[in-house]
Amino acid sequence: MFHKTIIVVFLENCLPKAEVICTLGRMTETGFGIDIGGSGIKGARVNLKTGEFIDERIKIATPKPATPEAVAEVVAEIISQAEWEGPVGITLPSVVRGQIALSAANIDKSWIGTDVHELFDRHLNGREITVLNDADAAGIAEATFGNPAAREGAVILLTLGTGIGSAFLVDGQLFPNTELGHMIVDGEEAEHLAAASVKENEDLSWKKWAKHLNKVLSEYEKLFSPSVFIIGGGISRKHEKWLPLMELDTDIVPAELRNRAGIVGAAMAVNQHLTP
Ligand code: BGC
């Protein structure tokens, strides 16, 4: 808190010749986010006022096996390539509570029980770090910079990719680690029915896949009565193929931030000192 106050004062007194002070002031407007996924680890500097990337995103293939140590080395490489020295927000496709990874549905099982703060702190030389669930990061980014529907009422944002990630938002505030992708629907985990990867792996038509998604969303609708569903992930780009096939009472809208959401949300989380 003390640190934050000083920076605000510096910003307000940012005189043309006070180069160092101005640079310090700007630090709060620029953040850095890293999104750890199954196939790629991506990072970028983020303008925290606009939610835009400041320069090109850096992407390195996820190592195999994607153990915590191997992934942390790639994260350190991205930070070094970007020549970034400030705080870093990092997403994981895992439940993260008290900075401990507690699940690993689509990542190496050795993440379970890993103290992710200790891990990244060691690889990133003691800077400020926040690690959070990837869908939660997408949720907070969308609520600030994306579809205005994400800011109002009880919102469920879902990311449809290899798995299904979920973020619960109430008037833009996050309830973390909801993991709706693992809810059992018709005897199967929701993400095994309706993730985007299921459409691809089983070569399902849009009609067939939309039927699965409809079944999953109907269950969520019954249990949580959200004001809106916001759908993110690559498949949201093709919403005209499946949105008209949905038969729910609840509105469904595509996310606007697309593949920027994880990185932007991670950068926001560390800037706001969120530690789920
Ligand atoms: C994981 C979630 C993650 C989602 C999307 C699920 O399998 O359990 O933590 O948010 O995939 O990556």
TrEMBL record:
One of its GO terms (molecular function) is polyphosphate-glucose phosphotransferase activity. Its EC number is 2.7.1.63. It is an enzyme of class 2 (transferase). Belongs to the ROK (NagC/XylR) family. NCBIfam families: PolPhglucPhase. Gene3D superfamilies: 3.30.420.40. Keywords: Transferase. This is Transcriptional regulators.
